[in-house]
Amino acid sequence: MAQLDTRGKLAILADAAKYDASCASSGTSKRSSAGKEKGIGSTEGMGICHAYAPDGRCISLLKILLTNSCIFDCHYCINRKSSNVRRARFSAEEVVNLTLSFYRRNYIEGLFLSSGIINTPNYTMEQLVEVARSLREDHQFRGYIHLKTIPDADPELVRQAGLHADRVSINVELPTVGGLKRLAPEKSADRIDGAMREMKTSIEDGHDARKKYRAAPKFAPAGQSTQMIVGADSANDGDIVTKASTLYDRFGLRRVYYSAFSPIPDASAILPLKRPPLMREHRLYQSDWLMRFYGFQPKEVVAATDADGMLPLDIDPKLAWALKFRETFPVDVNLAPRELLLRVPGLGVKAVNSIIVSRRWRALRLDDVGRLTVSIAKVRPFISATDWRPVTLTDRADLKTHIVPKKEQLELFAA
């Protein structure tokens, strides 16, 4: 480790950070050093890791680990104590210099920093906080900072992370307590929950202070998030959806991220031999979207799963729900409330908002709806309009085959 230069460390620790999915930089407050005598960096503008904000902006982040050494031996982690991987470690000063150097070259707009546990959780957390503190206070860095905190560390250290970072995250790791005990016996679900609860309280206190005192410091303005590994244990999609909903309700999370388990070298015998389909991860993100933006209750998303509690891989969760609960349809686009229109497969939030505005001025026809959506074929069986009634189409036993695009074999040398 001592013989590695900065470039060598970066190669190891940037690669080791790729398993962390929770690095979106949306939701923070706007800050910029433009036009100021002091300071460097900004959270604004267009975006060696790319995250996407809800409005579609691409944000570039330096995403690295402080170290990939770890005193824990979690079965699913490539950086676990018993793993035969090359180790490296940055000092806090090296991370600060890297961040500033990359920013000045216009490579990045912010930093996502996580770490293995070295020496003790408190020592590691102190190093992470020192990076953020130095960037903010010593260098007046106003770019985006996301710190992955350590639930076993002293609560005051975790709180200090929120004083300097835009977003903090505490990983729940696995969807079930049983899975955590089996695959990460050194970690405690109670300690993780406690750390997330304290962070929620600190964020709320910070918001209250800002309302009363304009000069009060901002505390984690982009909130907190977490990550779950999908496919490492026996939890089905219904378990994961239920867990995610609980986390949103109890801890006020901005995001729950899902990371498909990836087989690792020298893996434990209790781990799966192959990774789950990446489409499973995608379907979980879609189900997450249904709960956050489409008004679906967790039990409704779970109702879209099959007998094994898994979401279909060939169709999205909203379509799966619609096919199971056809008595809800067809929905009249000229009369139905927004909540019901959001349940129509193929209609997104923007399309529904446009429908509600447009129907104030004229009765909508099928062609009008078609101009607002990507595939009118997917929408037609579930709506009615001035010139369209699906009649028996909604009740067809083979409806799914008429909606889902047919798979075609691509030709290697097609023109």
Largest sheet geometry: 7 strands, mixed
Amino-to-carboxy terminus distance? 51 Å
**Number of folding domains?**
2
Q: So what's the overall shape? A: globular
| CATH topology group of the largest domain | TIM Barrel
DSSP helix fraction: 25-40%
Number of strands: 9
Kindly name the structural category.
alpha/beta
- CATH H-level superfamily of the largest domain: Aldolase class I
- How is the largest sheet built, in terms of strand order? 1-2-3-4-5-6-7
Arithmetic mean of pLDDT = 87
CATH architecture of the largest domain: Alpha-Beta Barrel
The number of helical segments is: 15
Which percent range describes the beta-strand content? 5-15%
Please report the first level of CATH classification, the CATH class of the largest domain.
Alpha Beta
User: Low-confidence stretches at least 5 residues in length (pLDDT < 50)?
Assistant: 42-47
Order of helices and strands: HEEHEHEHEHHEHEHHHEHHHHEH
Radius of gyration: 24 Å
Describe this structure in words.
The protein has 415 residues and is of the alpha/beta class. It has two domains: 6-276, Alpha-Beta Barrel (TIM Barrel); 325-403, no CATH class. Helices cover 38% and strands 10% of the residues. It has helices spanning 6-16, 92-104, 121-138, 155-164, 177-183, 189-212, 237-251, 278-293, 298-303, 317-324, 338-341, 349-358, 366-370, 376-379, 399-403, and strands at residues 49-52, 58-65, 110-114, 144-148, 167-169, 224-230, 255-260, 331-332, 383-384. The strands form two sheets. Strands 1-2-3-4-5-6-7 form a seven-stranded mixed beta sheet. Strand 2, helix 2 (92-104) and strand 3 (110-114) form a beta-alpha-beta unit. Helix 2 packs parallel to helix 3 (121-138) and helix 7 packs across helix 8 (278-293). The radius of gyration is 24 Å and the shape is globular.
